[in-house]
Design a protein that fits this description.
20% strand; 33% helix; alpha/beta; single chain; eleven-stranded mixed sheet; UDP-N-acetylmuramoyl-L-alanine:D-glutamate ligase; four-stranded mixed sheet; 404 residues; globular
Amino acid sequence: MGKEKDLEIVAAGHTCLDLIPAFTIEGEVDNMTDVLVPGKMINMGKCVVVGGGPVTNAGVSIRRLGVKTELIGKIGDDDFGQQILRWYEEHEDHFKGIKMVAGESTSYTIAICIPGIDRFYLHHCGANDTFGYDDMSFDIVERSKLMLFGYPPWMNKLYSNTGAELTRILQKTRELNTTVALDLSIPDVSGYGDKIDWYAILENWVPLSDIMVPSAEELFYFLYKKEFLEKKAKLGPKEGVLDHITVEEVSRMGNNLLEMGAAIAMVKCGHRGLYVRTAGQDRLKKMGAAGCANLANWANRELWFPVYQEEKFVGALGSGDSAIAGFLAAFVWGHSIESCLRYANAAGSMNVTVPDGLTWNKGFDDLTRRIEAGWKTKDLAITEPGWKKERGFWVGPNNRGKWE
């Protein structure tokens, strides 16, 4: 007999320290080289230093929404590692699954957010590269209804050997009757990422994952690498690959994930909102401890929900993690698929009003108040065949389930 599931969610995986220096530039700039000039001294504002990575950005966000949450991650016994532990203990609590390992270096990310330019990151993987099966606290996983694992494409030991190490972790998690949610991340496509057969890796990981929550851009890279690189080569100034991924391509990727074995595919589409595609009831019944509250509502759905209108835009650091937090919090509390999408976009839209991935969060009730007050979504037009607007959602041609 397994342990009592006294935890609702455990967030595991990539852990780092985020350093976010504030640029004091007035207005927006057109080119990065207008600001970052060799030999030039740039006057900066304050630097926000917070725990980062999906373990923090998603895990702590889930906890602040009121969900019983634990974290699992690996850091080094260096100054940055001490800083992460202090940050957790000062702002949250002591998390038993965060392991400090002697001789390891702590992962960090420096986020460069220049007004008018899409953000980019200077990243050191550190201890995340050696994270493996033996670093998991499976006693915590066994107590949890759902495990969210984040960013394995940035964790060398997990994606090596066709992803065998994470495959072991996911297999063990399922044996413990814990529902699996898997978030991805786009690797350095001009470096190590170009040498990996990511499609083969997904064929190992996705069948062991109940809920897939990747971004459209990273998923397109993993599933359709050639087409991704072709789109990337044709980008204009300030354009991203996401802007050129069609609705049909997003729908096809959602179907790919279901065919690989996932039960729910939620694809984050940035400023374009969230796409979700779900399997039939037979697959949904096999999701483990955190199952769907209403199978008829969740089965065979295809929906696209636009983003909410933000009060102001500061930066998108952690917005995808926040959207996942909103979605999974609502999910483990038994909400409908429509409600989960609302909370996901509500959390993501609040996130972009602050420079970091956490300080937006005033709790689940705050999101509820905003949604119930009639929070307006941004305009989104889908003109591809088979799609129609209904009840504030775009409804796809593969949608056959029941409304809430």
